[in-house]
Design brief:
The complex is a heterodimer of chains A (437) and B (481). Chain A has 437 residues and is α/β, with parallel strands linked by helices. Chain A contains ten helices and 20 strands. In chain A, 23% of the residues lie in helices and 38% in strands. In chain A, a hairpin with a 2-residue loop joins strand 1 and strand 2. Chain B has 481 residues and is an alpha/beta fold. Chain B starts with a helix and ends in a 6-residue tail after the last helix. Classes of the chains: A alpha/beta (437), B alpha/beta (481).
């Protein structure tokens, strides 16, 4: 039985565990029908031309894990940004772990999707925002059909969240293979401010597939600063679908750091619905082995005077495969748009591959849109220069790679995150560095 | 009166197609529709050897199983392939040896097109092969070329006279089953040009083919094959026009270039099929497959000026098979009114130290859509491959669109690939700068558009540059000085 059949046949069992007489369930059923029709994406679909899920879908995933395993803090401490105080929403095998989490309802809500879907108190927000911006493609439909748990964050007007919020999903490996589908909803109202760090981590070598959907709404003047840290085992795959809707004068930045996983696919979609919006999409990818990272971005400009900045850096070693597909759409009314897209790649090994497709679709005449894409290797002369001055080759290479990735790192606003990423990069390049960037 | 961008836009809207006349020449047209019998009939008409008929039939059978591509960024009603006449030829006349024997009506046609054969013969030093409704009607300078051993003749004649050469190379770069339109072309192509440059010969003049669709309800399916043997050089030009009609006409051509070791082929196209009227009615569907193969040290350079056609679907490509081979692509695509163009190139790097350059300029006006679609592929053995791509778009008005779909695939760490794209309009400040210096707005726009396309125009051979300039004028009258 292939995975699609298994998922389809398990839907009845899933329905038993949820309230079937709710509006949300109607959305689920619709999405389910959609998924039944569409199935999993194949390479024949343009958007999945360079990424095949076949190897990932071959596993016999457990869809509703029952076995419980307690996870203690020391076990997983390293996966948190633990040196600063943060709010935490932690899930273990798709279930909420109150023990590891730190949620709040003072002034603003950092809590669970399950309770937000169930309690009448949250109904207005759910009605207005849930499943509104998410596009119903293959995997988003699948997620919507099984929506049950995830993080729910609601920041009311004029509120500044004083410390970052971490959303962390662990898989423990109690089952041979596990598939989880978290669903996050983040609503940031007028003039509010929030910083969020998201991470998916598998604690064993067992196969794991995460199909996560995150919807973010940034109202007027709101600011959202979002970091995705992806450094998983080579047995874990991730499909990250993020949909962001922005209103006038809002600022949203998403940084994606992809350092590991079997297949990682990031679908990052920005929809600009007002004027003077600023969107930032940045990423660093450093992978080796047979890993595969695919960044698929979309920025949709619909109104005048908006900006978008994209900057993705990739370093690919051994047989790693990198994909970058960046699309910028500028609608007829979006005059004076300033859209900038940059994608630079370094292939370290002869067997690594990069497929890039920076795409522009422009319908307005008074715009500044540019994209640049390069693929190459490290400058031999620069390496030689450093070696001449007594820096060993390995360190010299690492230095050059740091410099290469630094344009992305320097815009990280949480110092602890920056430090963590710096350490991860050092680990990846297996060097010690004794300096700050 | 002040000339503004709005005036220019207005002028563009109303500017009519100058070559939209129809010549009343008696012609022989096959009944509409396509089946095996038609394919056989075309082959028989051409007096083709057995292998050619079999080749066509194989392509036809493959075609019946294929589906039309839907991925291009263009929208149109698909042509009904059974509603097209697949063969139309000016009534058979005895073979012509000199221009004096050419039908005066035909000569007048070409006079109107601005390619007076007489004149060209005297002044331009260009050998022209003229293909009207898929059949080659006149080839000039044959003798002069023959002295050097250069073969330049209609495809149908080449199949008779040089079957070995044709058999060896036809379909070697664009296989009959390559894609939907290439398969269709392989099955029904009626003529085209064949050109062979022997070893070490530098072709003394520009070779040129002029295509014209004349009859209504017909499609044009010509096939061009250029083979440059070791160390030779040839510059090849291609131009096309069609009468103004309400219906959409189909043009599905195949061009194959083979550049053997150290050879160089320069292939320039000025495409000016009827683009449809200002309401988007009529116009030619231009679905063309063009590809070149480069052996060691060889070089292929595509230059195209695309101003016509209702729909353009065209990707002149280079397969850089040999080490140190070079591929180039220079393109200006102008779309106006309701024209749609999805054009670009493919550079497939297979050999070591291969180089490719892509310069693409798109100008969209009216309600047209202009897309660049390109592929740069570096295979794992292509050490030190180098690519530079640049696609710039210029938008006039806010009802048109410019799109870029570059695909970059690299499997080699020593490869260096650069891609950049920009989109802009003629800036107010640029105009202001010119105005300040006493250049009026009209001239300033001309200056800017000229500068924008110059990189590509410069690549056209001298003899053709004049014509290209003229065609650009038609499409963007008032902007090119």
């Amino acid at each position: 039985m292939d995975l699609k059949e298994k998922i389809v046949s398990s839907y009845v069992a899933f329905e038993d565990g949820v309230n079937m007489n709710s509006d949300v369930h109607e959305i689920r059923s619709k999405a389910f029908q959609n998924f039944e029709k569409l199935g999993f994406p194949s390479k024949k679909i343009e958007a999945w031309k360079y990424t095949s899920l076949n190897a990932v879908l071959r596993e016999d995933y457990c869809l509703f894990p029952n076995k419980k395993k307690t996870v203690t803090l020391p076990q997983v401490k390293d996966h948190f940004i633990h040196d600063i105080d943060t709010y935490k929403v932690v899930f273990v095998d798709g279930k909420y772990s109150s023990f590891l989490s730190e949620t709040t309802h003072d002034n603003f809500d950092v809590c669970l999707m399950s309770s937000a879907l169930a309690k009448p108190k949250y109904k207005p927000i759910i009605e207005n925002y849930f499943n509104k911006v998410a596009k119903q493609d293959h995997l988003t439909s699948l997620n919507t059909a099984f929506v049950k748990e995830g993080a729910y964050i609601h920041i009311p007007r004029n509120t500044e969240v004083e410390k970052p919020i971490q959303i962390i999903n662990f898989t423990t490996g109690t089952e041979d293979a596990i598939m989880t589908q978290p669903r996050n909803l983040i609503v940031v109202e007028q003039n509010a401010y929030v910083q969020i760090i998201e991470r998916h981590q598998s604690l064993t070598q067992n196969a794991a597939l995460t199909n996560v959907v995150t919807e973010i709404f940034a109202d007027r003047y709101a600011t959202v600063d979002y970091y995705k840290i992806q450094n998983d085992h080579t047995s874990a795959s991730l499909v990250d679908n993020t949909f962001i809707e922005q209103q006038s004068e809002s600022t949203v930045a998403v940084h994606t750091f992809s350092f590991g996983g079997k297949v990682t696919r990031n679908n990052l979609n920005f929809y600009q619905m007002g004027k003077h919006i600023n969107s930032t999409l940045k990423g660093i990818t450093i992978i080796e082995g047979k890993q595969h990272v695919d960044h698929h971005t979309l920025v949709h400009h619909t109104a005048p005077n908006c900006e978008s900045h994209q900057d993705y850096k990739g370093i690919f070693n051994e047989r790693a495969v990198g994909v970058f597909n960046g699309k910028v759409v500028v609608e007829k009314d979006a005059q004076k748009t300033n859209a900038y897209q940059q994608n630079n790649n370094v292939l370290v090994s002869d067997r690594s591959t990069i497929n890039a497709k920076p795409q522009l679709e422009i319908f307005a005449d008074d715009v500044k849109c540019s994209h640049g894409c390069t693929t190459g290797q490290l400058d031999e002369q620069a390496l030689f220069y450093m070696q001449q001055r007594g820096i060993p080759k390995k360190e010299a290479r690492a230095l050059l790679m740091y410099a290469f990735a630094n344009t992305v790192l320097e815009s990280v606003k949480i110092p602890e995150v920056k430090e963590r990423i710096t350490k991860l990069i050092a680990m990846k390049l297996s060097v010690r560095i004794g300096f700050d960037l | 009166m002040k000339y503004t961008e709005d005036d220019l836009r207005e002028e563009l809207k109303t500017k009519e197609y100058e070559y939209g006349f129809y010549t009343d020449i008696e012609s022989e047209t096959f009944p509409k529709g396509l089946n095996e019998d038609i394919v056989r009939a075309i082959s028989k008409k051409k007096n083709e050897p057995q292998w050619m008929t079999a080749w066509r039939l194989e392509a036809f059978n493959a075609w019946t199983k294929m589906i039309e591509p839907e991925w291009p960024n263009v929208q149109y009603t698909k042509p009904n392939f059974q509603d097209i006449a697949y063969y139309s030829a000016p009534k058979k006349k005895p073979k012509l040896n000199s221009l004096d024997e050419v039908d005066p009506e035909l000569l007048a046609t070409f006079e109107k097109l601005g390619i007076s054969l007489e004149e060209q013969k005297r002044l331009a030093n260009v050998a022209v092969d003229i293909v009207m409704d898929s059949v080659s009607v006149a080839t000039t300078f044959k003798e002069t070329l023959a002295e050097k051993g250069i073969i330049f003749m209609p495809m149908s004649e080449a199949i008779q006279k040089h079957p070995a050469l044709v058999k060896k190379y036809i379909g070697s770069v664009v296989p009959p089953k390559d894609n939907f339109y290439a398969a269709l072309n392989s099955a029904v192509f009626s003529d085209g040009s064949f050109c062979y440059i022997p070893k070490g010969v530098r072709c003394p003049m520009e070779l040129s083919t002029y295509f014209r669709i004349n009859e209504g309800g017909t499609g044009q399916f010509e096939r061009t094959l250029v083979v440059a043997d070791k160390g030779s050089y040839v510059s090849y030009l291609e131009g096309c026009t069609a009468p103004q009609r309400d219906e959409n006409q189909l043009h599905a051509a195949v061009v194959e270039l083979v550049a053997l070791d150290d050879a160089e082929i320069k292939y320039s196209t000025v495409q000016n099929w009827f683009p449809g009227d200002q309401n988007g009615k009529g116009g030619v569907f231009n679905f063309v497959t063009k590809r070149g193969l480069c052996e060691t040290n060889a070089k292929i350079s595509w230059t195209q000026v695309e101003t016509g056609s209702a729909i353009t679907w065209k990707y002149p490509s280079c397969i850089l098979k040999g080490n140190r081979s070079v591929g180039e692509f220079y393109s200006i695509a102008v779309t106006n009114n309701f024209q749609q163009a999805d054009t670009g190139t493919k550079m497939i790097h297979l050999g070591k130290n291969t180089k490719s350059t892509i310069i693409s300029k798109g100008i969209s006006a009216g309600q047209s859509q202009n897309s660049y679609r390109g592929l740069v592929q570096i295979n794992s053995r292509a050490e030190n491959a180098r690519n530079f791509s640049q696609c710039d778009s210029l938008l006039m008005g806010n009802e048109c669109g410019a799109h870029t779909f570059p695909y970059i695939e690299s499997k080699n760490k020593s490869a260096q690939i650069e891609h950049e794209a920009t989109t802009s309009k003629i800036g107010e400040d640029q105009l202001f700068y010119c105005n300040q210096r006493g250049i009026d707005t009209e001239k300033a726009i001309a200056l800017i558009v000229n500068g924008f396309s110059k990189e590509v125009l410069n690549k056209l051979p001298m003899e053709f540059a004049v014509e290209a300039q003229k065609l650009l004028e038609i499409s963007l009258e008032g902007s090119v000085g």
